[in-house]
Amino acid sequence: MTPFYRFASRGAIIPFLKAVSRQHVTGTENIPPSGGFVAVANHLSDLDSLTAMRALVDVDVPAYSLAKSSLFEIPLLGRVFKAGGQIPVYRDTAQAGNALVEAERRLRAGDVVMVFPEGTLSRDPLQWPMTGKTGAARLAMATGVPVLPMGQWGAQDIIDSFGGGFHPFPRKDVRVVIGEPLDLSRFGSDTTDRDAVREATAEIMRAITALVEQLRGLKAPRPYDMRYDGDPGKGKRGVRRPDPAPGAQDGGTA
Q: In the chain, how many H helices and how many E strands?
């Protein structure tokens, strides 16, 4: 952990999180003791990246998150992200693929990279994980590193990223559970094998969803799929369509 990363996380970000939340983490014994890995988590709030990373930083494991480029433009937070080595994702541009190239380089160097496989905030009106995109699976397959699934719940009550605003007080409970690492080696290392990549992605999302079920004490419905249920647009939650007939839905992992 570099001096600046330590300062930014423990001197600025974690004190802020402590001021607005009570974070409870279980499963830290599942964190690989050495080497790089891909940490993956569900995504309900713009605060999620900080709460998930804190769960690792609190046990002295620095993580470098793939974050949308707009966050790097926020005056204070952007400077912290840049200096802390976080990885910007320039969506829908020619530079979009650069983030995965940089993430792969860091994994091979033994770093920890955090990815939110849904690719955006969940649009599910029931607040469950959506179908995943394939970036996390591709990184794990290409590098051979394990995937560490994480489920979290509560940050959405602090920052409601769908127009509900910022609610710092009273402090909210944020719960994070870390699951056992996933070994995706059986899917091979060929990231051009679309079927293998899609199956690996589905396994990642099943693991995340199972942890969120544990946190919520509920059974998840089928994953919300923006290709089937529809993309409601920026800053909007979607509306679930009736469940498709068996075999009619392909999982939405492209």
A: 7, 9
Return the CATH fold of 23-216: Glycerol-3-phosphate (1)-acyltransferase (3.40.1130)
d(CA 10, CA 203): 33
pTM: 0.92
Chain-wide mean pLDDT for the chain? Answer: 91
Please tell me the distance from the alpha carbon of residue 163 to that of residue 120, in angstroms, as a whole number.
16
CB 36 within 8 A of CB 67: no
Domain borders along the chain are: 23-216
What integer pLDDT is reported at residue 254 of this predicted model?
36
Query: Using an 8 Å Cβ cutoff, are 145 and 106 in contact?
Result: no
| 223-235 confidence digits (pLDDT tens) | 999 999 999 998 9
Tokens standing for residue 24? 């409870």
Sheet holding 63-68, edge to edge: 21-26, 172-178, 147-153, 37-41, 112-115, 63-68, 87-89
Angle at 62 between CA 210 and CA 106, to 5 degrees: 95
What's phi and psi for 159, nearest 5 deg?
-120, 110
How confident is the model at residue 182, as a pLDDT? 98
